[in-house]
Amino acid sequence: MKILVADDDPQLVRALRITLSAHGYEVVAAPDGAAAVTLAAAERPDIVMLDLGMPRLDGVGVIHALRGWTTAPIIVVSGRTGSADKVEALDAGADDFVTKPFQIDELLARLRALSRRVSASPGEPVVSFGDVQVDLAAKAVTRAGALVHLTPTEWQILEFLARNPGTLVTRQALLKDIWGTEQITDTGYLRLYLSQLRKKLEADPARPVHLLTEAGMGYRLVLDA
Description:
225 residues; alpha/beta; Rossmann fold; Arc Repressor Mutant, subunit A; five-stranded parallel β-sheet; 8 helices; 39% helix; globular
């Protein structure tokens, strides 16, 4: 599997190249945003890992450029910790966000999760709530008949909830399903992704009636509200 690493810190890029290569990944690297877009078009990586604060073109600009032609998973690895930066990156089309400094085991777990592409079995149901339809076979979501773009991680969360409608899904179960381990500390990523899903699928995201949070426990998809 090929990973494009875009970061203007040569020491970090060197360390990631060594570590990822040791775990079986093929690594190509770009020192700035413009080079990242060019290299992505030439190399067609399976996963893109990028920083936000790069010269020539920042990370969000790279995400917008890539999302014009590829659905390859994008993971942001950045020293920016503000929620506004995370939301902006996710809105642009990133699939995950890891804050520097990071534990390499956690990063590898997230990469493994992003690399999973399991084909849906034919004949799977369509789950409906409000004006939203979730086609589990086609891995497609529509709202009032219009196609809704979800990132791969947003889809995984929604799919997990849609397969368990009305049931409390714990944070631990979601973390294990999406990132492959319960050991990853939930530092707000699930809340952030649920917020994004509500913006896209709820009539009033501030007062959700379908994608509900059970305080201290997890989340629940309510079909008939």
